[in-house]
From TrEMBL:
<dbReference type="GO" id="GO:0004674">
    <property type="term" value="F:protein serine/threonine kinase activity"/>
</dbReference>
<keyword id="KW-0418">Kinase</keyword>
<dbReference type="InterPro" id="IPR003594">
    <property type="entry name" value="HATPase_dom"/>
</dbReference>
<dbReference type="InterPro" id="IPR050267">
    <property type="entry name" value="Anti-sigma-factor_SerPK"/>
</dbReference>
<dbReference type="Pfam" id="PF13581">
    <property type="entry name" value="HATPase_c_2"/>
</dbReference>
<keyword id="KW-0808">Transferase</keyword>
<feature type="domain" description="Histidine kinase/HSP90-like ATPase">
    <location>
        <begin position="26"/>
        <end position="128"/>
    </location>
</feature>
<dbReference type="InterPro" id="IPR036890">
    <property type="entry name" value="HATPase_C_sf"/>
</dbReference>
<keyword id="KW-0723">Serine/threonine-protein kinase</keyword>
<protein>
    <submittedName>
        <fullName>Anti-sigma regulatory factor (Ser/Thr protein kinase)</fullName>
    </submittedName>
</protein>
Length: 151
């Protein structure tokens, strides 16, 4: 753990590139965030990012970092060893009970900001959760999909 003079606190962990990483990540982040007002959202989104990295990459290790600002803003990132494609919003499934294809939609809808950095060494997906300024909900799944630029 790092604590900066500005009051920022940073913690990092390495998880296996395996199905167990999401559960391990949830436990890790719950302990760190305690009673933070956006804890549940952060835990859900970390779980989604770790799951996506396991499903869409051949990474043997996943690196997660959480930074909590002095004003309680959460910055979360997950780094993997890369995939052939970039993270993007998938077309929503017609069945509302479908269990896959919602990870990046959740990231987009629950975070204040999000994005990714991709290079030859891998991909880092990052997001920010602001407890003082929650994001506006999208008007529809169609509107969310139309914003995506998937190749």
């Amino acid at each position: 753990m790092r604590i900066y003079s500005s009051g920022r606190r940073e913690e990092s962990a390495v998880f296996p590139g395996a199905e167990t990483s999401a559960a391990e990540g949830r436990r890790w982040l719950r302990k760190i965030l305690g009673d933070h007002p956006r804890r549940d959202d952060a835990v859900l989104l970390l779980s989604e990012l770790l799951t996506n990295a396991v499903l869409h990459t051949t990474s043997t290790e996943l690196h997660a970092t959480v930074l909590i600002d002095w004003d309680a803003v959460i910055h979360l990132k997950v780094a993997d060893q890369g995939a052939p494609t970039s993270p993007c919003l998938c077309r929503p499934q017609p069945d509302p009970l479908t269990e896959s294809g919602r990870g990046i939609h959740l990231v987009r809808n629950l975070s204040h900001r999000w994005g990714f950095l991709k290079d030859t060494t891998g991909c880092v997906v990052w997001l920010t959760l602001d407890p003082h300024n929650p994001p506006d909900p999208p008007t529809s799944h169609r509107a969310v999909y139309q914003e995506a630029r998937c190749d």
